[in-house]
Amino acid sequence: MVIQTLELTKKYNRKVTALNHVSLSIDTGVFGLLGKNGSGKTTLMRILTTLLTPTDGKVSILGMDAVKANQEEIKRNIGYLPQEFGFYKDFTVYEIMQYMCFLRGTEKAMQKALIHDALEQVNLLDHSKKKYKQLSGGMKRRVGLAQAIMHSPPILIVDEPTAGVDPEERINIRKLLSTYAENHAVLFSTHIVEDIEYTCNKLAVLDGGNLLFTGALDELLHLADGKIYECAFDSLAEFQEFEQKYKVISFKRDGSKTKAIAIVESAKLTNATPYRPSLEEAYVYITTRRE
Ligand SMILES: Nc1ncnc2c1ncn2[C@@H]1O[C@H](COP(=O)(O)OP(=O)(O)OP(=O)(O)O)[C@@H](O)[C@H]1O
């Protein structure tokens, strides 16, 4: 396993439990991390990169315990795109990449080729002379991604790389991550379920610091089998009454009729027909079910 966590717990100020006994195994490929705002995704990624110390539990990276003595070696093996990648606004894209090489102690003779290759991968070669302040939000994310992959680290950890990126670029970023993951481990945190659907083999779902699910996409879909139904209503009043009792994921109106996708669990309703859930619907199911 490339990354392993065992019963990982993080408390902030002894009050907020950001991670609660989270055990995960991550190998080569794209591993998705899905969760609402505040579910603990960034905390987990910061612990894996050794930027944050856990309150309890264990982390192993490439077989090394994430203890102080191994931190420098672990950092060298991880490329990280943080949620907020900011930089000196008057630096050009090229200068940012040079600066990153300097921080890493990259030999001068190797820098040019490394920077060229990384900028090419994120489609920024034509913008290398632009200042950071002149870049769009999506371009800034791509600079962040370029610096993270530049030294081909065995582990790439990316915190919402597709946030604020237009659909075409989002597709490019997904393709880049999929290609990179052919022989590296990529941990991909996102709010966008489609990102996971198109790139990941496995995923984890966090909610309020708790690990609700970890496994293959198919297994998550399987959990929602027989729980989600398409329900038809002839009047608005009928639909409103239903909405009081069941979790409605989506609905469409057509005149007085309404069709809804809802979590009905095992209830036997005459107006409900079994429905094959999408990943997004299965995700809603596991984040709302209470056992
Ligand atoms: N430095 C901090 N001090 C106190 N509480 C914090 C700190 N950082 C995060 N938290 C809290 O820990 C919890 C998890 O936060 P975290 O940023 O890890 O979630 P997230 O899933 O990354 O959220 P988002 O999707 O909004 O980025 C939240 O309740 C958050 O308010």
Automatic annotation (TrEMBL):
Q: Which UniProt keywords apply?
A: ATP-binding, Hydrolase, Nucleotide-binding, Transport
Tell me which residues make up the ABC transporter domain. Answer: 3-233
Molecular function as annotated in GO? ATP binding; ATP hydrolysis activity
Q: What is its EC number?
A: 3.6.3.25
Q: Which PROSITE patterns match?
A: ABC_TRANSPORTER_1, ABC_TRANSPORTER_2
In terms of InterPro entries, this protein maps to: AAA+_ATPase, ABC_transporter-like_ATP-bd, ABC_transporter-like_CS, P-loop_NTPase
| Name of the protein this chain belongs to | Sulfate-transporting ATPase
Source organism of the structure: Tepidanaerobacter acetatoxydans (strain DSM 21804 / JCM 16047 / Re1)
